[in-house]
Specification:
320 residues; alpha/beta; Arc Repressor Mutant, subunit A; Nucleotidyltransferase, domain 5; 3 domains; 15 helices; 45% helix; 9% strand; globular
């Protein structure tokens, strides 16, 4: 019987990267993904770069080697139209869809436009600068595994009392994490719903136990007995929510998956924090007192929704 050959796909490259990161031998990697070891050696030899083996870059290099001349390389008029619309801020999907709408037939797909953007001619023109995220590399479209918290142990935000939803009572908080580049250290941010009072706590990692200790130590020492409820998202960092509820004698609610807007108060607070602490901030160099001073300035800004009082004023009037 003739041998059947198959190519590595994006999912295979991600698996190779994960196993290399774990320190697995080539033999073990090949067996795990169902390829011969020579295929793995060949993949690493062809598609590694200065930073080592990266699945996104490997997939891009593979596609560039197999790339045939596209419509945008053989049709100058279409190419100029697409480049012009990219410069106007149109997305590849908008360009392809508009052409189909105007000409009543499919002229080009958004995938073809993306491939041209990340081809050698497209990179020479720096067309990726006109995309929303401006990424220099195109990441493979794969379904990422994500740890989640068991649904059976969570209380949905749909069960939250209307008085909390309408911001009529104090002591109801929303929580989230603000991440930074090049470090595991992050900020555990909280916002009290009625007063819009913000808290940001330096957190050494996203591990559930570390996050739990960070929250409890800070709130118990500086803001005791102010937490009646806490609304979180489904980040695995919040896996010890039952211990949080027991420690504060409070109720923990969870947003529905991929609906972060359900805790819009803390999402807006995080945007404010980003103006003072961008993602490239060396957060490890800051002490908690430095962070408290930055957050105090945010809490001292008057807000129209508070009748132009400040969050500091409204919060401490309620909990004085």
């Amino acid at each position: 019987m003739e041998k059947q050959y198959r190519h590595l796909h994006s999912q295979d490259r991600v698996k190779i990267y994960e196993l290399i990161f774990q320190g697995q031998a080539i033999e073990a990697i090949a067996k795990s993904i169902g390829f011969h070891r020579s295929s793995i050696y060949r993949e690493l030899g062809r598609n590694s770069c200065k930073v080592g083996y990266r699945p996104d870059l490997a997939s891009q290099q593979y596609l560039m080697r197999r790339q045939r001349d596209s419509k945008l390389q053989t049709n100058p008029e279409l190419r100029e139209f697409v480049i012009g619309k990219l410069k106007e801020g149109w997305s590849p999907a908008s360009i392809a869809g508009r052409l189909k709408y105007q000409l009543k037939k499919s002229v080009i797909s958004c995938e073809t436009i993306y491939r041209f953007i990340y081809s050698t001619p497209g990179m020479a023109l720096k067309l990726h600068h006109y995309l929303m995220k401006k990424r220099r590399f195109r990441y493979p479209r794969i379904k990422r595994r994500r740890q989640t918290i068991a649904n059976a142990r969570k209380t949905s935000i749909k069960e939250r009392d209307d008085r909390i939803n309408q911001r009529k009572t104090f002591g109801h908080w929303e929580g989230d994490l603000v991440l930074f580049k090049y470090t595991k250290t992050n900020l555990f941010t909280l916002r009290e719903r009625k007063s819009r009072f913000i808290v940001a706590i330096k957190n050494q990692s996203r591990r559930a136990q570390t996050t739990f200790n960070t929250l409890v130590n800070y709130m118990k020492n500086k803001l005791p007995e102010t937490v009646q409820t806490l609304t979180l998202d489904n980040d695995p960092a919040f896996a010890l929510h039952e211990q949080v509820a027991e420690t504060f004698n409070s109720q923990i609610y969870f947003c529905e998956p991929y609906k972060s807007y359900q805790k819009g108060g803390i999402e807006n607070a995080n945007k404010l924090i980003r103006t003072q602490l961008p993602s490239r901030t060396k957060i490890d160099d800051l002490e908690q007192n430095d962070i408290d001073d930055i957050i105090k300035n945010l809490n001292d800004r008057p807000m129209r929704c508070l009748g132009y009082q400040t969050p500091n004023e409204v919060f401490w009037q309620a909990f004085a």
